[in-house]
Amino acid sequence: VSGLQDAVAAVVGASHVLADPGLKAGYEVDWTGRHRGEARFVVRPADTAEVAEVVRLCVREGVPIVPQGGRTSFVGGGVPRGGEVLVSLARLGGVEPVDEAAGQVTAGAGATLADVQAAARSAGLFFPLDFGARDAATVGGVLATNAGGNRAFRHGMARALVAGLEAVLPDGGVVSRLAGLPKDNAGYDLVQLLAGSEGTLGIITRARLRLTTHGASVATALIGLPSTAAAVELSTALQRRLPGLDAAELLYANGLELVCAHERLRPPLPHSHAVYLLAEAAAPEGALEALAEALDGLLPSPEHAVVADDTATRERLWRYREGHTEAVSARWTPLKLDVALPVAGLAAFVEELGRVLTAEAFLWGHAGDGNLHVNVVGLDREQEAGITRAVLELVAAHGGSIGAEHGIGIAKREWLHLTRGPDDLAAMRAVKAALDPAGLMNPGVLL
Ligand code: 2HG
Ligand code: ZN
Predict the structure, then answer these.
(1) What distance in Å separates the CA atoms of residue 105 and residue 227, rounded to the nearest whole number?
(2) Closest ligand 1 atom to the C-alpha of 329?
(3) Nearest-angstrom CA–CA distance, 47 and 45
(4) Which of 325, 332, 369, 374 to mutate to test the pocket of ligand 1 (most atoms within 8 A of CB)?
(5) What is the pLDDT of residues 69-89, one digit of tens each?
């Protein structure tokens, strides 16, 4: 085993192999603190060639591998289960100059989502994928987990925004499809297969991302509403009225109060409401007027909404929404479920969920695409298992998905059958077995 470590050190340099428990520790636990395990050692390769060489050495020794991005996934897919070689992609950062003719940019797996957004902006373009962990989540992990976020209902998840990628396969071979040609029909789409594969079919090392344009004028509204049904109805109406609607996010009173207490923010509106919708619109100009006009006639009174286009207010409105994860985690290690429902059935689901949830829970999510985050607190492990089963079975009964934008990882693996049928699962296993016959690439995740 130390033979493997020496061989890996010869490839990446001894200073990029971490075997000391103190040095490894930060890599062995995810953001939530819930998922952790001991790695055999951590390796920090510098480029695709080094990743490939490391994989070949591990395969030769029959040692399993865990690829790691920003550790913000919540489902345990990027931290060790025990005894694996942990391949951190942190050193594969860097964003190349934007290809303005193609409207694309190539970035290393270790570049953060915020790095890509900034590179796009500096070229007068826009990378629409966005979520709260933008400063930590990395391109490799974002694609490997097919992350979604706030604008997915309009621009698609990571999968819709990838024009190509480079990856090291489980045998150490390299697939490089970085040309980003909009028309390129030449066989199986390995790019789309690797996107969302959660590191089980290979290690993404670089990606070619699609950029778009975005209106310079942006306006944000936070609207208080009496029910989930009213919020979904408003979200749907705004999508019809406002072609530039970019976000339609769902919040509830208890979560908002928790965020206000945690961040010492004053409440957003004069009165408290059961449910809130955060809407954002972008346009070449006049987004504020367009948003206010779209809301006109849809609110019981102007007191039910704050609408703003100045940066300070907009950022405060987003804090109410994006502060949820941190505010909950500051007090508990919550049970986290990330589910998707057909938008038309979201309100009915939430109502039934209230009967299933026997403990305190915080709900929030993305109303535009029916993606609900269920954070349940104050449970012991046995209660967590019971609640998980009850909620995910309810999701399945409502025609939803048990893994919306965070993936399956190890946390939801035993529930995959609620969302995928037996033949579907068999086909996925066949793909896995074909590409990774020894089962060494992120074992235990997904399947
Ligand atoms: C969000 O939309 C993120 O806030 C995190 O996907 C959700 O912390 C969560 O459960
Ligand atoms: Zn989310």
Answers:
(1) 42
(2) 8
(3) 6
(4) 325
(5) 999 999 999 999 999 999 999
